[in-house]
């Protein structure tokens, strides 16, 4: 295969995170989100390295000491001063492509999900990390607006995505479905695009990123959010999405193995009461493990069990993400995996 968007289960060098500063939208929750990120770093560092962009040198010094006190090996954490607007590395981080056997990172335009939020620093973060020497492979700047959370790759030229995001005029106005599919083929070698027309989460700012709804676990398996509460306002759209997933076929014509994920009890913002986008689909695959968001809900255990069945041989690690959804994302949204060969070795 000449070109492919690497799947998340491809061997990884590291996971990239973006640490929040006191002036960010996380300010009222800074201690809580930092505790969540620390738990993620400790968990990930058991398996591979972590690359963290930080807002200033004081934060870099503090975190170096903090992770040392938590027992994280120094060689497993790279801290780089590179201020950002927000923490959602999934959407401002680079996308890894294998092109004729060579690894390359693609740097797309990030506009804060169609201009909803400031994103100028986020949009230049990959270039600044490149200038800092953290990447070991070439980085290609792309002119299109695209976020990592909008795409699910099976690693074999099939892409799963949503119409609500990739065809939204707030991203690449003037590009119709055929034009979008053409550039997905050009950039990623994609020959099949599986479009979901239904599915959304209240409180989601991304225009229905697929990583909140349905995820490839392997080329033949898709885990997805299923709402079993007919009185819930999400029920009609998620039931329609489930029907779409059941109708999808693999390249060989067989149906996908579908792994339904439970529906957590509604979570609401404690300040103004709006509903928060809690989803178990926002898990992260790393070397030898899967990190799964939990919400202090009775459905947490069922979600962990379902994903254990979808990922035999991998450790299943719960991460409390109640604080994360306060800013309308979850665990996967905070991360971007860097495949083997993409992170420069530390001298």
UniProtKB/TrEMBL annotation:
Lineage, broadest ranks? Bacteria, Pseudomonadati, Pseudomonadota, Gammaproteobacteria, Oceanospirillales
Q: Is the keyword Hydrolase in the record?
A: yes
Hydrolase in keyword set: yes
Source species, domain of life: Bacteria
Family annotation (PANTHER family): AGMATINE DEIMINASE-RELATED
Q: Where is the signal peptide?
A: none
Full protein name: Agmatine deiminase family protein
| A Pfam family this chain is assigned to | PAD_porph
InterPro entries for the chain: Peptidyl-Arg-deiminase_porph
Report keywords, A-Z. Hydrolase
């Amino acid at each position: 295969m000449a070109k492919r968007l690497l799947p998340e289960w491809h061997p990884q060098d590291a996971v990239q995170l973006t640490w929040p500063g006191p002036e960010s939208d996380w300010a009222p929750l800074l201690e809580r989100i930092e505790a969540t990120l620390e738990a993620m770093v400790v968990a990930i560092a058991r398996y591979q390295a972590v690359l963290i962009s930080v807002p200033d040198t004081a934060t870099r010094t503090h975190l170096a000491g903090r992770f040392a006190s938590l027992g994280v090996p120094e060689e497993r954490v790279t801290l780089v001063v590179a201020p950002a607007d927000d923490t959602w590395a999934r959407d401002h981080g680079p996308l890894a492509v294998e092109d004729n056997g060579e690894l390359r990172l693609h740097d797309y335009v990030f506009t804060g999900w169609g201009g909803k939020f400031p994103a100028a620093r986020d949009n230049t973060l990959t270039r600044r990390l490149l200038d800092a020497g953290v990447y070991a492979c070439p980085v290609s700047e792309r002119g299109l607006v695209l976020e990592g959370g909008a795409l699910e790759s099976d690693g074999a030229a099939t892409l799963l995505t949503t119409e609500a995001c990739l065809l939204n005029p707030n991203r690449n106005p003037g590009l119709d479905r055929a034009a979008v599919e053409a550039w997905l083929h050009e950039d990623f070698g994609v020959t099949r695009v599986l479009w979901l027309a239904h599915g959304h989460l209240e409180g989601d700012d991304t225009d229905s990123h697929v990583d909140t709804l349905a995820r490839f676990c392997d080329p033949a398996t898709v885990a997805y959010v299923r709402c079993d509460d007919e009185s819930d306002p999400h029920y009609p759209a998620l039931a329609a999405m489930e029907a779409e997933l059941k109708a999808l076929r693999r390249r060989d014509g067989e149906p996908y193995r579908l792994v339904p994920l439970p529906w957590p009890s509604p979570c609401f913002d404690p300040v103004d009461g709006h509903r928060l986008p809690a989803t178990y689909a926002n898990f992260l695959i790393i070397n030898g493990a899967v990190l799964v968001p939990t919400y202090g809900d009775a459905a947490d255990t069922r979600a962990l069990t379902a994903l254990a069945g979808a990922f035999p041989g991998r450790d299943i690690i719960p991460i409390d993400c109640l604080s994360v959804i306060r800013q309308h994302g979850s665990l996967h949204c905070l991360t971007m995996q860097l495949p083997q060969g993409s992170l420069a070795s530390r001298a």
